[in-house]
Amino acid sequence: MPALLGLMHMLREKRVALGHIGGGLALLGSLMFMLFWGASLMEWQMVRGSADPVQMAALLDRIRVDYYGQETPLNQLSTINVPEARLLTIQPYDPSSIKSIERALQESDLGLTPSNDGKLIRLPIPQLTEERREELVKVVRHRAEEGRVAVRNVRRDCIHHLKELVRDGEVGDDEERRAEEQTQKLTDNHIAKIDEILKRKEAEILEV
């Protein structure tokens, strides 16, 4: 997202070369591509029980907990450990937050069922049953759609600010057309990459 903010700032300041439009889109598109790849890969490895402890613990990094009215990252409220191949444990720094953490895990799209003894949360990793495979496919499809939306949003904002440059007389019609074509091409390329990964991950997950 910093790439998008920086791009929008440069466009608003009217100090951007047209190449920055495509460059900003390419950068954010690459980031979304990498994030989607990383998320789906970790989730798939975790369920298979083949991920290393760092990868398994990192899967919970995106969990946000309502902590005294503030959305707080789980890894700032607890210590996450991997004592067994198919078990994560979460040790809250503040024992009073255990219910909020458990609720955040239950409401997430991980599809895992936490339990606690009042002090420690246990998050068992289920075997890859047919039902679990279907749940995991839904997760990676959701990740893919998030990536597509993010890339299309960048395209929309780039085109909007490009038209502002045209209205202000800083960019000619030919330059506008070339920039729009470049932006659309980059958009299509990065969405195609996400679709390609999604198709491959779905096949891996559903393979028996």
Major beta sheet, strand line-up: 3-4-6-5
The first-to-last residue Cα distance is: 37 Å
State the major sheet: 4 strands, antiparallel
Q: Whole-number radius of gyration?
A: 21 Å
Give the CATH architecture of the largest domain.
Orthogonal Bundle
Report the helical percentage.
55-70%
| CATH level 4 superfamily of the largest domain | Ribosome-recycling factor
List the quaternary state of the chains: single chain
The CATH topology of the largest domain is Topoisomerase I, Chain A, domain 4
The number of distinct β-strands equals: 6
| Overall shape | elongated
Mean of all residue-level pLDDT scores: 76
Question: How would you classify the helix and strand content by structural class?
Answer: alpha+beta
Tally of alpha and pi helices: 6
CATH class of the largest domain: Mainly Alpha
- The total tally of domains equals 2
Stretches where pLDDT falls below 50 for ≥5 residues? 1-18, 37-42
The ordered string of helix (H) and strand (E) elements is: HHHEEEEHEEHH
